């Protein structure tokens, strides 16, 4: 084989098979003609279509399905053209609206169809177990028959027949596939006596004629997608493009006839489609010499430098004349590393609806970050784990507000079941959840959240042990188990939301957070007032030094002592003149707007806290006049917000930690650390114990006073 | 003042002008084509296929499956099979689609590695050297997201169009200023932090930041309309010169010569 293009010399690096020494100019000595195999390219659209085809039409059927591949002549010296599978390669979706018009394919000069057969298997085992040799053999036989019957001369596309075997793992969105481009093997091989660019093989006049004829072939709708054709140089000097069935006629008319085909390859070897065409020439035309133009394009016209003219010497193969002869085929595609293995493509990133929803949800955050909040830390939000104690009115609203902030880990703890009175206030439930005695709330909330969008949610149906609710000997084990479980949960999460409907049920979580130094965000509702607060750091924890602690401007004056918890503040509220101990007494008897307001503020406060460099140690910002700008990206970070719906007013309040607090003082935390669950049990069983420990008789009175009037059991933990 | 947007009809017109310019230039680039979409207000969109991306490396193939085969070699190749195919570069397809909400063109793109696996642009974006990545992150016209393709309904990567009109408006002001010196007072855009690298975007103006201050930039309200008209002719090329580098789409410099 020869070559003439010096720029292409890298294409002829020595190969085991290749006539590497022939690299000089057109060698006159014949050598085996070598062909560059097809290269497959599967568009994502094909896999998308295949997934729905498999699910909706094919199901478990493993029968072969006709598919169309598409290709065009090579049009770029650096890139060969590929045999492509596109969305429209598979039969159209019977009911659906296909995004591509199928009629457009016919006559599209850059989408010459190649008929293919798809064998999609249901299991990996049947994919690997496919009888590849016999598939190839029968496909080659089909081409052989099409050549003999003359069909290939009527529709030359059948010479480009191909096979595709695949296994679609729709759970993982990965596709395993393997192409074969069957070529009939000539034995002995065809040889090449010369191979040159068109520009060197023809005179300028002939070249012009060829260019015109090819151009006409390529632009006529009825011929544009026929990849094999003839060029007839008539005796009066004209060049005409004609279909291959005219071979005999054109030869009889005189002049000379050469063959041409759309060549996908870009270097100095002919592409694979020529192989079956040579078989056709041997069988049908019984020629021993053939001049072939490998048609390649530049800007829609023949590229005289890239296109090749190959003079082929064809063997005489006596066996082929024997009736019933079965030809040998070759052509399973190697993978991109040149190995005899299938190819695999993973498309979860673009096909998995969950991932797509995730990305769509994050888009809003990204836009927010990029427009207004450059410091918004999306990775931090998506990795923060939130524990929601209580999946009632507050719990539902908090969860819903966490999602749009990009929180992806939510755990619900609730003991209750969904009751008929719940769904209209508790936004994650519907009527169906109430039927048959009601689904457990923790479970129903998780299911509902997952229907909304991608989130790693789980729910635990368990009660939170409460002081003042004494534990009988029979229950001790289960209560202790609950305590330990709750402790584990607090340890596993980054933020704990206290959203239960009773005051006592917040005691143990408050203590656990104080002992573990976890961020606790507390929301409680009255009839027309609410409290949203963050608990201060645990008593035994020192703030780590923050290097280059940004002494940023802060818009508000702050209180930098240890901040109180729900129990400190409610009792003494040292900096708060508006302390209202009965805020949460009426619990679910609240104005409906209150829970969404309180829940939304609780979430906003949590997000602000996550973005504060000092996190749980962040000082409490005092209120700022709304006419003053805030400097921080998300505004000030207060300790408590109290809202009064009757007055349409909110107050920013700060409460310092109380050293005799029943939940977060060092006396209590130390005792808990020393005695663990035994201590908790004692608190549950001995009403006076905490009082004894902290020395607060008044507090006991206050605590007991608060356990009145608890609402219907539906909402109880 | 001209706000940097285009009507759907203008986009169609600008696309045709742009194709004339690009497709007739003697450069070694593929050609843009126009995909008819009668259902869209702009009647279609622009497509550029098969752009090779030699600088994007194909990752090692995920060989999660080590399938052993005892297939004979003769199934794959024979004496007449060329086996040392040179490795192929990654390829990318670009679509320029009119965005009806922002009234600007939007670039959608998608690429494949040589092994057929899709290119994850977010990874490539992240893997940029930090100064480039930072710049990409901060520039409105290089804000990369994955969105549903408006006609193909599959996720494609795109550059979010929200910064497009601002930069186009600014560009027109800059150009007018150059054309008729003294016609407008120079804008005083805020400069970003010093010592920033300026490699990512080819034009100097790209260093300007102009979030909200556009209304203070000298207006071209009084400019003769034909100057804005010229802008429509050159809109796509100007815009691509900003967004091209962010999506590895090389814009041949020669094209700019023919503008003047």
Automatic annotation (TrEMBL), chain A:
GO terms for cellular component: cytoplasm; phagophore assembly site. It is found in: Cytoplasm; Preautophagosomal structure. Keywords: Autophagy, Cytoplasm, Protein transport, Transport, Ubl conjugation pathway. The active site is at 587 (glycyl thioester intermediate). Residues 33-351 form the Ubiquitin-like modifier-activating enzyme Atg7 N-terminal domain. Gene3D superfamilies: NAD(P)-binding Rossmann-like Domain, Ubiquitin-like modifier-activating enzyme ATG7 C-terminal domain, Ubiquitin-like modifier-activating enzyme ATG7 N-terminal domain. Residues 1-28 are annotated as: Disordered. GO terms for molecular function: Atg12 activating enzyme activity; Atg8 activating enzyme activity. Residues 377-620 form the THIF-type NAD/FAD binding fold domain. GO terms for biological process: autophagosome assembly; cellular response to nitrogen starvation; defense response to fungus; leaf senescence; mitophagy; negative regulation of leaf senescence; piecemeal microautophagy of the nucleus; protein modification by small protein conjugation. InterPro entries: Atg7, Atg7_N, Atg7_N_1, Atg7_N_2, ThiF/MoeB/HesA, ThiF_NAD_FAD-bd, Ubiquitin-activating_enz. E1-like activating enzyme involved in the 2 ubiquitin-like systems required for autophagy. Belongs to the ATG7 family. This is Ubiquitin-like modifier-activating enzyme ATG7. It comes from Marchantia polymorpha (Common liverwort).
From TrEMBL, chain B:
Residues 177-207 are annotated as: Disordered. GO terms for biological process: autophagosome assembly; autophagy of mitochondrion; protein modification by small protein conjugation. It comes from the Eukaryota. GO terms for molecular function: Atg12 conjugating enzyme activity. It holds the Pfam family Autophagy_act_C. InterPro entries: Atg3/Atg10. Residues 188-199 have a biased composition (Basic and acidic residues). GO terms for cellular component: cytosol. Keywords: Autophagy, Transferase, Ubl conjugation pathway. Belongs to the ATG10 family. PANTHER family: UBIQUITIN-LIKE-CONJUGATING ENZYME ATG10. This is Ubiquitin-like-conjugating enzyme ATG10.
């Amino acid at each position: 084989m020869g070559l003439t293009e010096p720029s292409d010399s890298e294409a002829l690096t020595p190969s085991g098979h290749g006539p590497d020494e022939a690299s000089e100019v057109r060698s006159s000595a014949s050598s085996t003609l070598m062909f560059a195999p097809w290269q497959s390219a599967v568009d994502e659209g094909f896999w998308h279509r295949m997934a729905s085809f498999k699910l909706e039409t094919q199901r478990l059927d493993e029968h072969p399905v006709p598919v169309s591949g598409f290709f065009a002549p090579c049009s770029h010296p650096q890139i060969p053209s590929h045999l492509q599978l596109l969305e429209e390669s598979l039969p159209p979706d019977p009911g659906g609206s296909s995004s591509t018009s199928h009629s457009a394919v016919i006559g599209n000069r850059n989408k010459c169809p190649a008929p293919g057969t798809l064998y999609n298997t249901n299991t990996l085992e049947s994919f690997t177990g496919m009888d590849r040799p016999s598939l190839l053999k029968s496909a080659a036989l089909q081409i052989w028959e099409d050549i003999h019957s003359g069909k290939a001369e009527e529709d030359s596309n059948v010479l480009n027949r191909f096979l595709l075997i695949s296994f679609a793992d729709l759970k993982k969105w990965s596709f395993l596939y393997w192409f074969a481009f069957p070529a009939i093997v000539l034995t002995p091989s065809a040889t090449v006596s010369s191979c040159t660019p068109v520009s060197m093989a023809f005179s300028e006049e002939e070249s012009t004629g060829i260019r015109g004829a090819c151009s006409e072939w390529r632009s006529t709708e009825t011929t544009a997608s026929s990849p094999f054709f003839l060029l007839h140089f008539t005796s009066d000097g004209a060049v005409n493009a004609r279909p291959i069935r005219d071979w005999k006629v054109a030869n009889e008319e005189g002049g000379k006839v050469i063959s041409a085909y759309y060549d996908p390859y870009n270097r100095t070897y002919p592409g694979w489609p020529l192989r079956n065409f040579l078989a056709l020439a041997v069988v049908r035309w019984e020629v021993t010499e053939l001049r072939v133009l490998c048609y390649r394009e530049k800007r829609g016209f023949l590229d005289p430098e890239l296109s090749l003219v190959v003079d082929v010497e064809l063997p005489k193969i006596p066996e082929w004349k024997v009736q019933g002869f079965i030809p040998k085929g070759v052509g399973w595609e190697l993978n991109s590393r040149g190995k005899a293995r299938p190819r695999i493509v993973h498309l979860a990133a673009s096909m998995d609806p969950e991932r797509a929803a995730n990305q769509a949800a994050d888009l809003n955050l990204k836009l927010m970050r990029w427009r207004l909040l450059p410091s918004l830390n999306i990775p931090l939000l998506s990795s923060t784990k939130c524990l929601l104690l209580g999946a009632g009115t507050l719990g539902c609203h908090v969860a819903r507000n966490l999602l749009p902030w990009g929180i992806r880990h939510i755990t619900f703890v609730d003991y209750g079941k969904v009751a008929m009175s719940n769904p209209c206030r508790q936004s994650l439930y519907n009527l169906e959840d109430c039927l048959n005695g009601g689904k457990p709330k923790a479970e129903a909330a998780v299911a509902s959240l997952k229907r909304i969008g991608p989130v790693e949610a789980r729910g635990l149906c368990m009660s939170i042990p409460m002081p003042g609710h004494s534990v009988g000997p029979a229950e001790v084990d289960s209560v202790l188990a609950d305590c330990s479980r709750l402790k584990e949960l607090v340890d596993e999460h980054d933020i704990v939301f206290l959203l239960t409907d009773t005051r006592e049920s917040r005691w143990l979580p408050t203590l656990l957070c104080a002992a573990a130094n976890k961020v606790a965000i507390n929301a409680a509702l009255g009839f027309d007032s609410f409290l949203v607060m963050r608990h201060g750091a645990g008593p035994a924890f020192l703030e780590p030094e923050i290097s280059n602690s940004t002494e940023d401007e802060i818009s508000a004056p702050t209180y930098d002592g240890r901040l109180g918890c729900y129990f400190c503040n409610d009792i003494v509220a040292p900096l708060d003149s508006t302390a209202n101990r009965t805020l949460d007494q009426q619990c679910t008897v609240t104005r409906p707007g209150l829970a969404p307001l309180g829940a939304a503020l609780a979430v906003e406060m949590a997000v602000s806290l996550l973005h504060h460099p000092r996190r749980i140690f962040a000082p409490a910002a005092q209120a700022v006049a709304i006419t003053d700008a805030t400097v921080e990206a998300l505004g000030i970070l207060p300790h408590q917000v109290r809202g009064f719906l009757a007055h349409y007013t909110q107050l920013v309040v700060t409460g310092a930690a109380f050293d005799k607090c029943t939940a977060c003082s060092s006396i209590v935390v130390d005792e808990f650390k020393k005695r663990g669950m035994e201590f908790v049990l004692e608190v549950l069983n001995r009403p006076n114990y905490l009082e004894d420990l902290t020395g607060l008789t008044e507090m006991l009175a206050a605590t007991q006073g608060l356990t009145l009037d608890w609402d219907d059991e539906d909402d109880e933990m | 003042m001209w706000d940097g947007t285009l009507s759907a009809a203008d986009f169609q017109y600008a696309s045709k002008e742009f194709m004339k310019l690009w497709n007739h230039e003697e450069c070694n680039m593929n050609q843009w084509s126009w995909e008819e979409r009668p259902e869209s207000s702009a009647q279609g969109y622009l497509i550029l296929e098969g752009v090779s991306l030699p600088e994007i490396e194909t990752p090692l193939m995920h060989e999660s499956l080590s399938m052993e085969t005892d297939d004979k070699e003769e199934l794959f190749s024979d004496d007449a099979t060329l086996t040392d195919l040179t490795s192929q570069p990654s390829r990318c397809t670009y679509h320029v689609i009119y965005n009806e909400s922002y009234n600007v063109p939007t670039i959608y793109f998608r690429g494949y590695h040589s092994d057929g696996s899709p290119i994850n642009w977010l990874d490539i974006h992240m893997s940029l050297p930090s100064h480039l990545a930072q710049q990409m992150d901060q520039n409105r016209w290089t804000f990369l997201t994955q969105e549903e393709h408006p006609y193909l309904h599959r996720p494609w990567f795109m550059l979010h169009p929200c910064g497009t009109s601002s930069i186009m408006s600014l560009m027109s002001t800059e150009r007018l200023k150059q054309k008729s010196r003294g016609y407008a007072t120079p804008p005083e855009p805020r400069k970003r932090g010093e010592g920033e690298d300026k490699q990512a975007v080819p034009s100097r103006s790209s260093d300007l930041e102009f979030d909200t201050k556009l209304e203070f930039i000298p207006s071209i309200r009084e400019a003769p309309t034909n100057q804005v008209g010229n802008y429509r002719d050159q809109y796509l090329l100007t815009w691509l010169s900003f967004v091209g580098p962010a999506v590895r789409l090389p814009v041949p410099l020669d094209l700019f010569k023919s503008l003047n």
